[in-house]
Write a structure and sequence with these properties.
By secondary structure, this protein is an alpha/beta fold. The protein has helices spanning about 15-25, 40-55, 70-90, 140-145, and strands spanning about 60-70, 95, 100-105, 105-115, 125-130. Strand 2 (about 95) and strand 3 (about 100-105) form a beta hairpin.
């Protein structure tokens, strides 16, 4: 069984230059902008993986949100593929499909919908990220940001 002290390495040679620049960025805020098929969602999944294992609170746990225009987008584009990524690295997890949460020894990730920005309050997060931000209505995306 893997534990939070294990090290996982991504190989630069497996990514395009723009993907690697995003993955390796240490900036507080960063984004990956690209056209259809440029690997934005693929890379976002790995960026969330990096955040899950490295962005910890005082208790040593990660608490992250991933934001999608709708819950359906989050389930299809993040939840199931992220569980497959955890399987690939043999990281045990508990999926809570009804809440779109994934719990691991590192902490948890919750998929949030951009449909109700007013519900995004009161969370003490160690990290957050958004995917498909450009397809959300402008006013909603602006409030989410």
């Amino acid at each position: 069984m893997n534990n939070p002290q294990m090290t996982y390495k991504l190989k630069k040679s497996n990514y395009l230059p723009h993907q690697w620049a995003f993955l390796s960025s240490q900036a507080r805020e960063c984004c990956l902008v690209g056209g259809f098929g440029s690997g934005k969602t693929f890379t976002f999944l790995r960026k969330a993986f990096i955040a899950m294992i490295s962005k910890k609170n005082i208790d040593g746990k990660s608490k992250g949100w991933v934001l999608y225009p709708t819950y359906a987008d989050g389930e299809d584009l993040f939840f199931h593929p992220f569980c497959a990524l955890l399987d690939k690295y043999s990281i045990p997890y508990t999926p809570k499909i009804s809440k779109l949460e994934i719990h691991t020894a590192y902490g948890y990730i919750k998929v949030m919908s951009m449909e109700r920005p007013d519900r995004m309050v009161g969370a003490e997060l160690t990290w957050a990220g958004a995917d498909e931000f450009d397809v959300a209505p402008y006013d909603r995306g602006n409030r989410v940001f």
